Amino acid sequence: MDVLLANPRGFCAGVKRAILIVENALKIYKKTIYVKHELVHNKHVIEKLRNKGVMFVEKISDIPNNSIIVFSAHGVSKKTKEKALKKGLIILNATCPLVTKVHKEVSQASKKNIETIFIGHKGHPEVIGTIGQYNSTNSKIHLVESIEDIKKLPINLNHKKLNFFTQTTLSINNTRSIIKFLKKKFPYISGPKKEDICYATTNRQNAMIKLSKNSDIILVIGSKNSSNSKRLTELGEEIGVYTKQIESFLDIQKKWIKNIKYIGITAGASAPEFLVQQVIEYLKKMGAQNIKEISGNKEKISFKIPKYLTISKN
Ligand code: 0CJ
Ligand code: F3S
User: Fold this and answer.
1) Which structural domains are found in the chain, ordered by start?
2) Where is dimethylallyl diphosphate bound in this sequence (predicted)?
3) Model-level pTM?
């Protein structure tokens, strides 16, 4: 039995930045730090931060006045920000800069009253936050998840003044076919050159395709509510490789790896590398001999945190 490791895998620049913001805030302020929603969608990351004194809340009203609030990597709506300000909360914004970029574009469209179509998953916090940047009373933002949803859009849309944007963690394949349909139906629609899917989502999906070529089974490490991890799992299934999404090595069932030669491993953008290493250790105990890193795109991108949250290493 051999183990193949996808490259890149695991933490993206936005997740690293969000975690650093919270860890430094704990050290600097030395008091409870509240985070709106899970900072990133990973059970282990959340548990670790909770043990260090972080409280995760869904409603701003659950936070005592004048506390410190961190907005999760997925971002929040304008209304949520207003509520936090009204309560006198000190806001530390851990929204991924690539999500903030989409926020700004949606907000611009709203100011210009340009009717907007947003491609994303209903109920996901990033989608709620991004749609919540649009507050025009003269035009609307419409959420679509599929081609079927596009067919159901109101017929009185202004075809010549229309925009589209997307969630950052969607399936590349699926989104491209949705956009193709959108452009066919609304030839004047404007939007990003490709889509707003981020570099990390793109790289991890491409690494998954590469990994699938030589794997008999692929284990995707990522929490159930992690959109980008779920997309990796679906991609493996679409390609036709036996794919299982796991929280940690504890979820691995012996029958999955019985008589298997090549086990592929990847991890979503919010899954820490120690979980990958634990899986490798477990598989070694189960008889894995060679551990091979598949070559892939080296990621050099990193995002700065605000100066007042920087702690010098000296
Ligand atoms: O939405 C994001 C800015 C991605 C954050 C990192 O991944 P995760 O798993 O916390 O979030 P998704 O559910 O969006 O993939
Ligand atoms: Fe940002 Fe993409 Fe990661 S949007 S948080 S770099 S998955």
Assistant:
1) 2-11+198-293 (3.40.1010.20), 13-95 (3.40.50.11270), 98-190 (3.40.1010.20)
2) 41, 74, 124, 226-228, 270
3) 0.97
